[in-house]
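Listing 4. Sequential folding, example run.
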Amino acid sequence: MTVHNLYIFDRNGTCLHYSEWNRKKQAGISKEEESKLMYGMLFSIRSFVSKMSPLDMKEGFLSFQTSRYKLHYYETPTGIRLVMNTDLSVPNCRDILHQIYSTVYVECVVRNPLCVLGKTLQSELFTSCLDTFIRALPFFGVRAA
């Protein structure tokens, strides 16, 4: 099992942070273009799910999977969106994404007077805490070839 990458977007679709760990294949485009594609896809999927759901969606879109990876999604009440791509064997990561937001993002960014909210995160403390958190996950590891 493994974690491939993590995106953090603000409510306007700006990519605040991107990290990758065990990603084998690159997209062949710039990271800026890749994050725009990711946010556009999320926007479309969320819209589709909300329109097609037979019930009132309390939690909304949580995840989807392809034949190669699983995308996990979490949106905070303030509009921060966390997206984690993992391999298929990883279970639902909603609680983990919530922990990343509440224990890493809030503690290292929101409560840090040196971090400007709404701007790309340049905090080494945040990056270090996030990396430590991800590497401590029970499913973090190098994928078998």
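-- end of first protein; second protein begins --
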Amino acid sequence: MSEATTQTIWLTQDAYDKLQHELEQLSGPGRADVTAKIAAARDEGDLRENGGYHAAREEQGKQEARIRQLKDMLRRAEVGEATAVADEVAPGTRVTIAFDGDESDTDTFLLGSREVLGADDLDTNVYSPQSPLGSAILGKKKGDLATYEAPNGSKINVTVVKVEPYGG
């Protein structure tokens, strides 16, 4: 398994409960609804030219993939509360970095996942702790330097300017 698939996912109790509820909904009533749609479309006859059947099967595939994703996330979840004071970069913190030490060229983002943080409608950038930038700054404190590799292979140097807990 790759490192990204075996790494712990840090969740608040609220985020864990939200994901657990979604899994229960998809696994129970959601599966029943899709199965009923497939059965109804199958009863219409020739499956080769049955758009409703193919759409229901595609929906079923997406739903099953989401169920697998949720099960994996919940299996790897470590439940706890974010500390009121953040002195180092960790999942669930809001981080400001400066590129190449230039304090006028900064980026502020959340470290984590939109769904894990319950921030689906948030306008702020969110970076995964497993991303090149996220893994480079994980555990760093204000003033620390980090280097990560960009998709084009170049090395990018950043300085952690600010770390604060995410308030949701």
